[in-house]
UniProtKB/TrEMBL annotation:
Domain called Deacetylase sirtuin-type: residue spans: 1-230
Class of enzymatic activity (EC top level): transferase
Organism: Salibacter halophilus
Record-linked CDD domains: SIRT5_Af1_CobB
Entry comment, domain topic: 2 residues (Tyr-57 and Arg-60) present in a large hydrophobic pocket are probably involved in substrate specificity. They are important for desuccinylation activity, but dispensable for deacetylation activity.
Name assigned to this protein: NAD-dependent protein deacylase
Phylogenetic lineage: Bacteria, Pseudomonadati, Bacteroidota, Flavobacteriia, Flavobacteriales
PANTHER family in UniProt: NAD-DEPENDENT PROTEIN DEACYLASE, NAD-DEPENDENT PROTEIN DEACYLASE SIRTUIN-5, MITOCHONDRIAL-RELATED
Function (record text): NAD-dependent lysine deacetylase and desuccinylase that specifically removes acetyl and succinyl groups on target proteins. Modulates the activities of several proteins which are inactive in their acylated form.
UniProt xrefs under Gene3D superfamilies: SIR2/SIRT2 'Small Domain, TPP-binding domain
UniProt EC number: 2.3.1.286
Entry keyword Cytoplasm: yes
Protein residues bound to NAD(+): 13-32, 90-93, 174-176, 217
Length: 230
C-alpha cells in the first residue's frame, strides 16, 4: 500500500508573476499599465466606460501569451509528485497551470476567461481572444472579464480557507500579505502546520512553526525543493 501524501498548500501572489515579466499594480507607483485602479478595476469603471475596461484586460490577456512560467512555477508543479498539493493564487494569469500544477484555485478570477455581467457563475473560456462590446455571455448579457474587481466579493475564499485549514504544510510565496481578505488565509492554519514564507524582505509574523526564506520566488522555491528532496 502506498504511503498517504501529506497535504500541502501553496499560497502565491504577484511576485511569482513578476519574475515572468507580468507587471503588478504595487510595483508601478499606484498605476497599473498607466491606469489607476478606479479607471479599470472596479464595477463602477465598467459601468461608466466598458470599452476602456475591456481594452485594458484585452491588452493584459495578450501579454499573458508573451510570457512563460518561471522556475518558481515549475518547482511548485513538482510538489505534486511528493505531496497532495493545492495551489491558491491571487494571480489571474494561467502560469501555474502552464507549468503543470493540476489543482489551482484562483481567488481573484482568471484573465483568460470571461463571464456574464449579471451572473458570476456563467463563465466561458476565451482561449486568448479579446472581449469586445456586444460580445454576449450564454445568458445574453455583455461578456466581461472573469476577474474579481475592487469592491467585489471573493467567491473562492471559503473554499480556500477550507484548503488551508487541512494543510500540513503551507508555502507562502510572492505575496507581501497586504491584500485582504486573501492575506487572512494564514490565520486559519491549524497549530501544527509547517509554514514557509518566501519573500526578499522576509518580514515574518509570529508563529513558532514559521520558516522564513529571504529570497525572490524562483530562488526560494529552488531552495525549498531541495529541502523536500525534489
Amino acid at each position: 500500500m502506498s504511503e498517504k501524501k501529506r497535504k500541502l498548500v501553496v499560497f502565491s501572489g504577484a511576485g511569482m508573476s513578476a519574475e515572468s515579466g507580468i507587471s503588478t499594480f504595487r510595483d508601478s507607483g499606484g498605476l497599473w499599465e498607466k491606469h489607476s485602479i478606479e479607471e479599470v478595476a472596479t464595477p463602477q469603471a465598467f459601468g461608466q466606460n466598458p470599452k476602456k475596461v475591456l481594452e485594458f484586460y484585452n491588452h493584459r490577456r495578450r501579454q499573458l501569451y508573451e510570457v512563460e512560467p518561471n522556475e518558481a512555477h515549475y518547482k511548485i508543479a513538482e510538489l505534486d509528485t511528493k505531496f497532495d498539493t493545492t495551489v491558491i493564487t491571487q494571480n489571474v494569469d494561467n502560469l501555474h497551470e502552464r507549468a503543470g500544477s493540476e489543482r489551482v484555485l484562483h481567488l481573484h478570477g482568471e484573465l483568460d476567461k470571461g463571464r456574464s455581467s449579471v451572473d458570476e457563475t456563467v463563465i466561458v473560456d476565451l482561449k486568448g481572444k479579446d472581449i469586445k462590446l456586444g460580445d454576449k455571455a450564454p445568458d445574453g448579457s455583455q461578456l466581461r472579464p472573469h476577474v474579481v474587481w475592487f469592491g467585489e466579493a471573493v467567491p473562492a475564499m471559503s473554499e480556500a480557507m477550507e484548503e488551508v485549514q487541512k494543510a500540513e504544510i503551507l508555502i507562502v510565496v510572492g505575496t507581501s500579505l497586504q491584500v485582504y481578505p486573501a492575506a487572512g488565509l494564514v490565520d486559519v492554519c491549524n497549530p501544527d502546520c509547517e509554514i514557509y514564507y518566501i519573500d526578499p524582505q522576509g518580514e515574518p509574523w509570529p508563529n513558532p512553526k514559521l520558516t522564513v526564506i529571504k529570497e525572490k520566488a524562483s530562488i526560494g522555491m529552488k531552495k525549498l525543493a531541495q529541502k523536500f528532496n525534489l
